Amino acid sequence: MARSSAMTKPRLLLSWSSGKDSAWTLHVLRASNRYDIVGLVTTVNERFNRVAMHGVRAELLQAQAEAAGVPLWRVPLPHPCPNAEYESRMRALIARAISEGVTHMAFGDLFLEDIRAYREKQLAGTGLTPLFPLWGLDTGGLARDMVRSGLRAKLTCVDPRHLDRSFAGRTFDTALLADLPAAIDPCGERGEFHTFCYQGPMFRRPVPVQTGEVVERDGFVFADLLPGGEAIRPDEDAHPAHSAQ
């Protein structure tokens, strides 16, 4: 009976940015035990072989998927990528999903109405039902819950118009939450910062990662993350040096 019940669960894809919010969404979905999570969907810049916007190397993305135990569904994007081309490639992804019996797609969005409306519009009539498991949660409480669970992430991208560049490369932990200016959303939902999640209850093992060079590009500050190094244990909140090298 257990096997029969598992086989009847709706098949679901999770939009995976490599950051903490999508990682936490995976954790929440697994805890609900309502879906068969069949893939992590990530857009990857073809030219640089990195996660779009977050700037994370593809090999770290793959290591994440392996630690999570979920197959990676890559969506390669050209650089630059006009919106029409982006939507064309996403339609191809949706067609593949439907052909493989997927019925739902989950997103880690928290409160931006325009982003949610765009996703709902793109999936309308496709056969895929959008889900937003974290929607409407208090982001301060959510950030603290993440840290308490043992989730750790690196800030890979910072918008210097809102947050000082010195935050690039820092660890998302108790110390960082205490240091964030009051005007900054604790989860960076308005784009103040983006992260790479390397440890937490959604992973079978930590993803070893270390902070490399910090550079400014296209108006954003990026910390280049490198494979290797030691993952910070859940009871350690200290962050490494994060100045440009």
Descriptive terms for the model:
disordered N terminus, 245 residues, alpha/beta, 2 domains, disordered C terminus, 4-stranded antiparallel beta sheet, Rossmann fold, 7 helices, single chain, 6-stranded mixed beta sheet
Q: What is the third-level CATH name, the topology of the largest domain?
A: Rossmann fold
* Assigned CATH architecture of the largest domain: 3-Layer(aba) Sandwich
**Cα-to-Cα separation, first versus last residue:** 57 Å
Q: CATH homologous superfamily name of the largest domain?
A: HUPs
Helix fraction, binned, reads: 25-40%
Under CATH at level 1, the class of the largest domain stands as Alpha Beta
* SSE string: HEHEEHEHEHEHEHEEE
Compute the average pLDDT: 90
Q: How many independent structural domains?
A: 2
What percentage of amino acids are in beta strands?
Answer: 25-35%
Largest beta-sheet characterization: 6 strands, mixed
Radius of gyration: 18 Å
The secondary structure category is alpha/beta
Low-confidence parts: 1-6, 231-245
Q: What general form does the structure show?
A: globular
| Total number of beta strands | 10
- SS field, number of helical segments: 7
